[in-house]
Amino acid sequence: MAQMMEPASSSNTGRRIAKSAAAFRTISEVANELEIPQHVLRFWESKFSQVKPLKRGGGRRYYRPEDVVLLRNIRTLLYNEGYTIKGVQKLLREGQVTKSEADDERPQEKRASLSAAQRREIGAIIDELAEIKRMLGG
Fold first, then answer.
1. Which terminus of the chain is more solvent-facing, meaning fewer CB atoms within 10 Å of its CB: N or C?
2. Model's pTM, two decimal places?
3. Residue 3: inside a domain, yes or no?
4. Given pLDDT bands bounded at 50, 70 and 90, which one contains residue 59?
5. What is the separation of C-alpha 133 from the centre of its chain, rounded to a whole number of angstroms?
6. Comparing C-alpha atoms, which of 42, 50, 90, 47 is closest to residue 69?
7. What does the alpha-carbon distance between residue 86 and residue 74 come to, in Å, rounded to a whole number?
8. Neighbouring residues of 78: CB distance < 8 A, sequence distance ≥ 6
9. Which domain, by its residues, includes 67?
10. 41 touches 71 (CB < 8 A)
11. Is residue 122 in a domain?
12. Buried-exposed string 26-40: b where 16+ CB fall within 10 A, e elsewhere
């Protein structure tokens, strides 16, 4: 005897249906994707005028795909590249960071690799600093 089965839905299977790349994201989705707290995203909105999510009823934020790219670029510059907020603001004003830099998130001048001579010089400075630290008892 054939048994009728209910179609599986995301609520009763625990699986989530993936959103398309063009879909808007909530603040929690963006925070999870970028691995930063939601309050940091709200703070960045106050510091970077280029970050403008749509706000719906009750102030709920919806980020466009290009907003997520820009936030990812800002995150990389702040956390990985060592820029300050003011430094990132300057890069944004100068157009060195855009909402479409999905693949290479660093400004042009940061992309150049160090020459062998520069690496040797940095190595010598590191050695000198280590010696100073040793002399100071550290």
1. N
2. 0.59
3. no
4. confident
5. 34
6. 50
7. 11
8. 84, 85, 88
9. 20-108
10. yes
11. no
12. ebeebbeebebeeee
